[in-house]
Amino acid sequence: MRIGELSRRTGVSERALRYYEEQGLLRPERRPSGYRVYNDAHVSAVRRIRVLLAAGLSTAQIVDVLPCMVDDNGLLTPSCPELGDELVKHRDRIGEAIGELEATRANLDTIIAGDRRAG
Amino acid sequence: MRIGELSRRTGVSERALRYYEEQGLLRPERRPSGYRVYNDAHVSAVRRIRVLLAAGLSTAQIVDVLPCMVDDNGLLTPSCPELGDELVKHRDRIGEAIGELEATRANLDTIIAGDRRAG
DNA sequence: CTAAACCTTCACGTTGACGTCAGAGTCAAG
DNA sequence: CTTGACTCTGACGTCAACGTGAAGGTTTAG
Fold this sequence. Notes:
The structure is a homodimer of 119-residue chains.
Chain A (H helix, E strand, L loop, with lengths): L2 H8 L3 H9 L6 E2 L5 E2 L2 H15 L4 H7 L15 H33 L6
Antiparallel strand pairs in A: 1-2
Chain A binds a DNA duplex (30 and 30 nucleotides) through α2.
InterPro entries (chains A, B): DNA-bd_dom_put_sf, MerR-type_HTH_dom, MerR_fam
Keywords (chains A, B): DNA-binding
Protein name (chains A, B): MerR family transcriptional regulator
Protein backbone atom coordinates (compact mmCIF):
# COMPACT_ATOMS: atom_id res chain seq x y z
CA MET A 1 0.00 0.00 0.00
CA ARG A 2 1.05 3.63 -0.40
CA ILE A 3 1.19 6.34 2.23
CA GLY A 4 -2.40 7.46 1.84
CA GLU A 5 -3.82 4.07 2.65
CA LEU A 6 -1.45 3.56 5.57
CA SER A 7 -2.54 6.94 6.88
CA ARG A 8 -6.20 5.96 6.65
CA ARG A 9 -5.63 2.54 8.20
CA THR A 10 -3.67 3.91 11.15
CA GLY A 11 -5.25 7.32 11.62
CA VAL A 12 -1.79 8.84 11.49
CA SER A 13 -1.14 11.77 9.15
CA GLU A 14 1.06 11.35 6.09
CA ARG A 15 3.34 14.03 7.47
CA ALA A 16 3.80 12.05 10.66
CA LEU A 17 4.53 8.86 8.69
CA ARG A 18 7.23 10.64 6.68
CA TYR A 19 8.57 12.06 9.92
CA TYR A 20 8.77 8.60 11.46
CA GLU A 21 10.78 7.44 8.47
CA GLU A 22 13.04 10.48 8.79
CA GLN A 23 13.66 9.49 12.42
CA GLY A 24 14.46 5.91 11.44
CA LEU A 25 11.25 4.38 12.83
CA LEU A 26 9.94 3.15 9.48
CA ARG A 27 11.80 1.90 6.41
CA PRO A 28 9.28 1.43 3.58
CA GLU A 29 10.22 0.14 0.15
CA ARG A 30 10.46 2.63 -2.70
CA ARG A 31 9.10 2.41 -6.20
CA PRO A 32 11.23 3.85 -9.02
CA SER A 33 9.02 6.93 -8.87
CA GLY A 34 10.02 7.45 -5.28
CA TYR A 35 6.62 6.45 -3.91
CA ARG A 36 6.78 4.76 -0.52
CA VAL A 37 5.37 1.23 -0.34
CA TYR A 38 4.19 -0.21 2.97
CA ASN A 39 2.92 -3.62 4.08
CA ASP A 40 0.90 -4.98 7.00
CA ALA A 41 3.97 -5.14 9.23
CA HIS A 42 4.24 -1.39 8.88
CA VAL A 43 0.65 -1.00 10.03
CA SER A 44 1.38 -2.71 13.33
CA ALA A 45 4.69 -0.91 13.60
CA VAL A 46 2.91 2.42 13.36
CA ARG A 47 0.48 1.35 16.07
CA ARG A 48 3.34 0.37 18.32
CA ILE A 49 5.02 3.71 17.67
CA ARG A 50 1.83 5.54 18.62
CA VAL A 51 1.44 3.59 21.85
CA LEU A 52 5.00 4.34 22.86
CA LEU A 53 4.70 8.03 21.96
CA ALA A 54 1.49 8.24 23.99
CA ALA A 55 3.36 6.63 26.86
CA GLY A 56 5.80 9.52 26.81
CA LEU A 57 8.74 7.96 24.99
CA SER A 58 10.64 10.03 22.42
CA THR A 59 11.27 8.87 18.86
CA ALA A 60 14.93 8.44 19.80
CA GLN A 61 13.96 6.03 22.58
CA ILE A 62 11.54 4.23 20.30
CA VAL A 63 14.30 3.76 17.75
CA ASP A 64 16.09 1.70 20.37
CA VAL A 65 13.04 -0.19 21.52
CA LEU A 66 11.37 -0.98 18.21
CA PRO A 67 14.04 -3.35 16.80
CA CYS A 68 13.61 -5.46 19.91
CA MET A 69 10.06 -6.28 18.97
CA VAL A 70 9.29 -9.03 16.49
CA ASP A 71 7.80 -7.49 13.40
CA ASP A 72 4.63 -9.48 12.84
CA ASN A 73 3.03 -9.87 16.23
CA GLY A 74 4.58 -7.24 18.44
CA LEU A 75 6.50 -9.59 20.68
CA LEU A 76 9.41 -8.44 22.74
CA THR A 77 12.43 -10.54 21.97
CA PRO A 78 14.20 -12.02 24.99
CA SER A 79 17.48 -10.79 23.50
CA CYS A 80 16.89 -7.25 24.68
CA PRO A 81 16.43 -7.43 28.44
CA GLU A 82 17.76 -3.92 29.10
CA LEU A 83 15.18 -2.34 26.86
CA GLY A 84 12.50 -4.29 28.63
CA ASP A 85 13.75 -2.75 31.84
CA GLU A 86 13.45 0.70 30.30
CA LEU A 87 9.83 0.08 29.49
CA VAL A 88 9.22 -1.27 32.98
CA LYS A 89 10.74 1.84 34.50
CA HIS A 90 8.57 4.02 32.37
CA ARG A 91 5.47 2.06 33.30
CA ASP A 92 6.39 2.46 36.96
CA ARG A 93 6.63 6.22 36.55
CA ILE A 94 3.13 6.23 35.12
CA GLY A 95 2.03 4.05 38.02
CA GLU A 96 3.43 6.60 40.42
CA ALA A 97 1.30 9.31 38.84
CA ILE A 98 -1.77 7.08 39.01
CA GLY A 99 -1.08 6.53 42.69
CA GLU A 100 -0.88 10.26 43.32
CA LEU A 101 -4.15 10.88 41.57
CA GLU A 102 -5.89 7.98 43.29
CA ALA A 103 -4.81 9.22 46.72
CA THR A 104 -6.12 12.63 45.81
CA ARG A 105 -9.40 11.21 44.65
CA ALA A 106 -9.76 9.20 47.85
CA ASN A 107 -9.20 12.34 49.89
CA LEU A 108 -11.73 14.18 47.80
CA ASP A 109 -14.24 11.42 48.35
CA THR A 110 -13.97 11.69 52.13
CA ILE A 111 -14.34 15.44 51.93
CA ILE A 112 -17.35 15.14 49.68
CA ALA A 113 -18.82 12.56 52.03
CA GLY A 114 -18.82 15.21 54.76
CA ASP A 115 -15.62 14.66 56.69
CA ARG A 116 -13.36 17.63 57.19
CA ARG A 117 -10.22 15.59 57.67
CA ALA A 118 -8.84 12.97 55.37
CA GLY A 119 -5.90 10.72 55.99
CA MET B 1 11.09 31.00 51.02
CA ARG B 2 12.02 32.69 47.75
CA ILE B 3 12.32 31.16 44.29
CA GLY B 4 15.97 30.15 44.64
CA GLU B 5 15.37 27.97 47.67
CA LEU B 6 12.26 26.41 46.16
CA SER B 7 14.33 25.62 43.09
CA ARG B 8 17.02 23.94 45.18
CA ARG B 9 14.49 22.05 47.29
CA THR B 10 12.60 20.70 44.30
CA GLY B 11 15.35 20.42 41.72
CA VAL B 12 13.19 22.45 39.34
CA SER B 13 14.70 25.48 37.58
CA GLU B 14 13.59 28.97 38.50
CA ARG B 15 12.50 29.49 34.92
CA ALA B 16 10.25 26.45 35.14
CA LEU B 17 8.76 27.67 38.42
CA ARG B 18 7.91 31.03 36.85
CA TYR B 19 6.48 29.20 33.88
CA TYR B 20 4.25 27.11 36.15
CA GLU B 21 2.95 30.30 37.73
CA GLU B 22 2.35 31.77 34.27
CA GLN B 23 0.30 28.68 33.44
CA GLY B 24 -1.72 29.00 36.63
CA LEU B 25 -0.17 26.01 38.41
CA LEU B 26 1.39 28.01 41.25
CA ARG B 27 0.21 31.18 42.98
CA PRO B 28 2.95 32.37 45.34
CA GLU B 29 2.61 35.45 47.54
CA ARG B 30 4.43 38.60 46.50
CA ARG B 31 6.53 40.93 48.57
CA PRO B 32 6.31 44.69 47.87
CA SER B 33 9.52 44.31 45.89
CA GLY B 34 7.79 41.84 43.62
CA TYR B 35 9.75 38.87 44.98
CA ARG B 36 7.80 35.61 44.99
CA VAL B 37 7.29 33.97 48.38
CA TYR B 38 6.60 30.23 48.65
CA ASN B 39 5.75 27.89 51.52
CA ASP B 40 5.94 24.14 52.14
CA ALA B 41 2.65 23.54 50.38
CA HIS B 42 4.25 24.88 47.22
CA VAL B 43 7.09 22.39 47.58
CA SER B 44 4.71 19.44 47.48
CA ALA B 45 2.67 21.11 44.76
CA VAL B 46 5.77 21.35 42.57
CA ARG B 47 6.51 17.68 43.18
CA ARG B 48 2.99 16.75 42.14
CA ILE B 49 3.30 18.89 39.04
CA ARG B 50 6.52 17.12 38.10
CA VAL B 51 5.00 13.68 38.60
CA LEU B 52 2.04 14.55 36.42
CA LEU B 53 4.21 16.13 33.72
CA ALA B 54 6.42 13.04 33.72
CA ALA B 55 3.30 10.98 33.27
CA GLY B 56 2.54 12.84 30.07
CA LEU B 57 -0.12 15.28 31.27
CA SER B 58 0.01 18.84 29.90
CA THR B 59 0.02 21.91 32.11
CA ALA B 60 -3.53 22.61 30.95
CA GLN B 61 -4.65 19.20 32.22
CA ILE B 62 -2.76 19.68 35.46
CA VAL B 63 -4.49 23.00 35.96
CA ASP B 64 -7.76 21.08 36.15
CA VAL B 65 -6.69 18.46 38.67
CA LEU B 66 -4.09 20.21 40.81
CA PRO B 67 -6.31 22.75 42.62
CA CYS B 68 -8.28 19.94 44.22
CA MET B 69 -5.33 17.84 45.23
CA VAL B 70 -5.12 17.79 48.98
CA ASP B 71 -2.26 18.91 51.15
CA ASP B 72 -0.46 17.10 53.94
CA ASN B 73 -3.18 16.73 56.55
CA GLY B 74 -6.13 16.53 54.24
CA LEU B 75 -6.77 20.24 54.17
CA LEU B 76 -8.50 21.64 51.16
CA THR B 77 -6.48 24.07 49.12
CA PRO B 78 -7.90 27.60 49.16
CA SER B 79 -8.61 27.36 45.43
CA CYS B 80 -11.53 24.99 46.04
CA PRO B 81 -14.10 27.37 47.51
CA GLU B 82 -17.31 25.60 46.64
CA LEU B 83 -17.71 22.26 48.35
CA GLY B 84 -20.59 20.98 46.28
CA ASP B 85 -20.88 20.03 42.62
CA GLU B 86 -17.55 21.62 41.87
CA LEU B 87 -15.71 19.08 43.97
CA VAL B 88 -17.63 16.24 42.40
CA LYS B 89 -16.77 17.55 38.96
CA HIS B 90 -13.14 17.84 39.92
CA ARG B 91 -13.11 14.34 41.31
CA ASP B 92 -14.58 13.09 38.04
CA ARG B 93 -11.90 14.91 36.06
CA ILE B 94 -9.28 13.25 38.21
CA GLY B 95 -11.00 9.98 37.45
CA GLU B 96 -10.71 10.65 33.74
CA ALA B 97 -7.02 11.40 34.08
CA ILE B 98 -6.57 8.16 36.01
CA GLY B 99 -8.42 6.30 33.30
CA GLU B 100 -6.20 7.67 30.55
CA LEU B 101 -3.05 6.85 32.46
CA GLU B 102 -4.30 3.36 33.24
CA ALA B 103 -5.03 2.77 29.57
CA THR B 104 -1.52 3.90 28.72
CA ARG B 105 -0.04 1.69 31.40
CA ALA B 106 -2.12 -1.24 30.19
CA ASN B 107 -0.73 -0.74 26.70
CA LEU B 108 2.77 -0.71 28.07
CA ASP B 109 2.03 -3.85 30.08
CA THR B 110 0.84 -5.57 26.94
CA ILE B 111 4.04 -4.73 25.14
CA ILE B 112 6.20 -5.71 28.10
CA ALA B 113 4.40 -8.99 28.57
CA GLY B 114 4.87 -9.75 24.89
CA ASP B 115 1.18 -10.19 24.33
CA ARG B 116 -0.37 -9.79 20.92
CA ARG B 117 -2.10 -6.74 19.54
CA ALA B 118 -1.25 -3.70 21.56
CA GLY B 119 -3.00 -0.53 20.59
C1' DC C 1 28.49 52.61 52.67
C1' DT C 2 29.67 48.87 48.88
C1' DA C 3 29.58 44.43 46.67
C1' DA C 4 27.82 40.00 46.07
C1' DA C 5 24.01 37.38 45.72
C1' DC C 6 19.42 37.25 44.70
C1' DC C 7 15.43 38.64 42.39
C1' DT C 8 12.38 41.04 38.64
C1' DT C 9 10.30 41.40 33.81
C1' DC C 10 10.86 41.21 28.98
C1' DA C 11 11.97 38.76 25.01
C1' DC C 12 14.27 35.85 21.77
C1' DG C 13 16.17 30.81 21.23
C1' DT C 14 15.56 25.60 21.40
C1' DT C 15 13.76 20.95 20.86
C1' DG C 16 10.34 17.47 19.53
C1' DA C 17 6.58 16.12 16.87
C1' DC C 18 4.47 17.31 13.83
C1' DG C 19 1.08 21.06 10.41
C1' DT C 20 0.90 23.35 6.15
C1' DC C 21 1.86 25.11 1.84
C1' DA C 22 4.48 25.31 -2.71
C1' DG C 23 5.92 23.47 -6.85
C1' DA C 24 6.55 19.42 -9.35
C1' DG C 25 6.31 14.47 -10.60
C1' DT C 26 3.23 9.86 -10.99
C1' DC C 27 -0.55 7.03 -12.14
C1' DA C 28 -5.26 5.00 -13.19
C1' DA C 29 -9.38 6.20 -15.74
C1' DG C 30 -11.86 8.20 -19.51
C1' DC D 1 -3.66 12.46 -24.12
C1' DT D 2 -5.81 14.79 -20.47
C1' DT D 3 -7.80 15.08 -16.02
C1' DG D 4 -7.65 14.53 -11.25
C1' DA D 5 -6.27 12.05 -7.36
C1' DC D 6 -2.13 10.81 -5.28
C1' DT D 7 2.64 11.42 -4.07
C1' DC D 8 7.28 13.60 -3.80
C1' DT D 9 10.79 16.87 -1.57
C1' DG D 10 11.85 21.01 0.59
C1' DA D 11 11.03 24.54 3.76
C1' DC D 12 8.74 27.56 6.89
C1' DG D 13 5.10 27.58 10.89
C1' DT D 14 3.36 25.91 15.48
C1' DC D 15 2.97 24.63 20.23
C1' DA D 16 4.56 23.19 24.70
C1' DA D 17 7.98 23.44 28.17
C1' DC D 18 11.23 25.38 29.07
C1' DG D 19 16.72 27.70 28.32
C1' DT D 20 19.27 31.82 28.05
C1' DG D 21 20.74 36.21 28.34
C1' DA D 22 19.69 41.49 28.96
C1' DA D 23 18.92 45.30 31.83
C1' DG D 24 17.82 46.58 36.07
C1' DG D 25 15.82 46.52 41.15
C1' DT D 26 16.39 44.20 46.22
C1' DT D 27 18.58 42.13 50.15
C1' DT D 28 22.18 41.04 53.11
C1' DA D 29 27.06 40.49 54.76
C1' DG D 30 30.84 43.15 56.05
